[in-house]
Design goal:
Elements: H1 6-9, H2 13-16, E1 30-37, E2 45-52, H3 55-66, E3 74-79, H4 105-124
Antiparallel strand pairs: 1-2, 1-3
Length: 125
Amino acid sequence: MASLDPRIRRAEPALWNVELPPLLPLDQWQTYEVFVVRTRGSHAQHVGSLHAPDPELALVLAKEQYARRSTCVALWVVPTDAIHRTASEEEDLFQPATDKSYREPQGYLTTRERLEKYRHRLQSC
């Protein structure tokens, strides 16, 4: 019997015929992180997580949960275990390895002072 629910009617029939592996009593579906691109050219923003048995169904669930009421041009669904991060104890990893003060505006102050001293020395000779 066909459903009258528009959410079920617009889903692709191929998704409903996929046979999923049975879950053991304490098993859970895989966790996916959902990223949304709101407008063309903008960056993807993390909007939440969800559980799904496979990436295709994760996209369907993400569309229904995170892109139904707002504008959206793209959805990204990434398995949570595929995301790697640095530990908070490794914050020194992001410190510059060498002195690159010349790249900062404050680094030019010392250069300007040295130039003024050199000009003053040339004028006094």
